[in-house]
Amino acid sequence: MTRYSSTAFRSAKGIDWTLVGLLGAVVLLTSSCSWVGWNWDTPMTTVLPKSDFGRATHDIFMLISWWTLGIFIAVEGVLLFCCWRFRERPGAPIPRQVHGHTMLEISWTVAFAVILLIISIPTIQAIFKTQEAPAATALRVEVGGHQWWWEFHYPQQKITTANELHLPAGQTVAFFLNAPDVIHSFWMPQLGGKRDVVPHRVNHITLTPEVPGDYPGQCAEYCGMSHANMRFRVIVHTPEDFEKWVKGQQAPPAESTDALAQQGKSVFTQSTCVGCHTITGLSAGRIGPDLTHFASRKRFAGELLDSTPDNVAKWIENPDHMKPGALMPNLGMTSEQSKALAAYLLTLK
Ligand code: CUA
After folding, report:
1. CA 117 to CA 128: how far, in whole Å?
2. Tens digits of per-residue pLDDT, 204-252?
3. What whole-number distance in Å separates Cα of residue 338 and Cα of residue 268?
4. Is ligand 1 within 6 A of the CB of residue 230?
5. Closest residue by CA, ligand 1 atom 1
6. H or E segment at 249?
7. Is any atom of ligand 1 closer than 6 Å to the C-beta of 112?
C-alpha cells in the first residue's frame, strides 16, 4: 500500500512557514482595510440597519448566516471525527470499500431542501414588502444619478439639492430613480438599496428611516472614471428639524454685501456658469448641481471635497485635477476670479 506523508511541505520542526506567512498577510490586509475604511460615526455597513428596509434584508442575512454556521459546524465536526476515528494505524487492515449510501444521500438532500424552504419564506415576504407601491402620504424624492454626482429633487416641497439627501425619521419615503446618462446604483448601506438607476426608466424604492443621524451613500454600479467618487450623504432628521431644513431650502439664497462675494457674483453671471447651474433668482442651468444653497452643504463634488474656500477655488480652476474625469469644464478662470467665485458660492447658505 502506498503511504502518503502530510509532512512533505513542513520544516524539520513541523511548522509550515509558507502557511503561517500567508495567514499573517491575510490578517494584516483585512485588518488594515477596516482601519482605513471603518468610521464608527458613519460606518459603510449593512449590519447596523437604521430603516425598515435595512432590517428586512439584514434579518434574512442573519438567518442565512446562522443556518450556514450550523451546517459548517456539523459537516466539519463529522469530517474531523471521521479523520480521527478512521485514521491509519500500524498493522490495521484496508477498511471495507463502499460506494454510495442511498439513505444518507436522500436524507441530506431532503434536509437541505427543507432548510432552503425555511429561508425562502421570509425572503419572498421581504421581496414583496420592499417592492410595495408607496402610500400616497409618502414623502416623494426624485433621485437623479449623474456622472458623478447625485441630484435630489423634492417635488412636493419644490426643493433641489445635490449629494446631500435630507430625510425625516419615521416617515415613509418614496424614491423615484432615474439617470440622464448611464446606469448607476443607489445605495445607502444602513438604510437600503442597492437599486439600479437606469436611463429612460424610473425605478422605485420605498423605505422608512428610523434613527436620526448621518449615513454614507455610494453609487454601486460602475459608471465611468469617477464611479468611486460618486458618493452622497444621507442626513436623517427629527421631523421638526426636517421642517426647519425644508424652510431654509425654500428661502431665497442669502445675499452678502461682502466686496469679494459681490465680485464673485458678477463672475458667475458673466460666465458660462449660468448655462449649467441654477441659483434661484439668478440662473436656471440644469446640467450641473443646483447651487442655490451650496454653502449649506458640508461637502461638494460627489461628497469628495470639504466645502472650504480653498477647495472650491481649486475645483473651479481645474475640476478634472480634483476629481478625475469630472464633466465640469475648466473655464480658464484666473486665480483671482476663482477665489471671488468661491467666496460668493460660500455665502449661499
Ligand atoms: Cu454612478 Cu457608479
Report:
1. 17
2. 999 999 999 999 999 999 999 999 999 999 999 999 999 999 999 999 8
3. 10
4. yes
5. 184
6. helix 239-250
7. no
